[in-house]
Amino acid sequence: MWVKNLSLLFAVATTVAATSSGITPTSNATTVATVSPSGVTAAPDTTTSTTPLPSLAHTASINGFADKIYDELPSCAQQCVRANTSVTPCAYWNTRCLCIMSNFGDLV
């Protein structure tokens, strides 16, 4: 019984969401379908690929960001960006990992 009620609740919620966003829903007795807005891109296929990603050289000695600019920083600022790579989730620039570290978001 609760499954039927859950399906009905989902159908109502989908219809309300579609109507409030200007999308015209189409329905029959058991399913509700919505038409995607033209500006929305479909979700990518999430099936895993057997193709391995290319590997990159692990060359970070300070961290993935500071290595490239460390020598260009004033000597008084070099200590501010020095962090052991063991404290960063992504010590190296890797094809599987993109780090955005907040401590590098502002001026040094």
Automatic annotation (TrEMBL):
GO cellular component terms attached to this protein's record: extracellular region
Pfam family, one: CFEM
Main subcellular location: secreted
Disulfide bond sites: 90-97
Keyword Transcription regulation: no
Record's keyword terms, sorted: Disulfide bond, Secreted, Signal
Subcellular location field: Secreted
Signal peptide boundaries: 1-18
Record domain CFEM: where: 48-108
InterPro entries: Extracellular_membr_CFEM_dom
Signal found in the keyword field: yes
Protein known as: CFEM domain-containing protein
Organism field: Candida tenuis (strain ATCC 10573 / BCRC 21748 / CBS 615 / JCM 9827 / NBRC 10315 / NRRL Y-1498 / VKM Y-70) (Yeast)
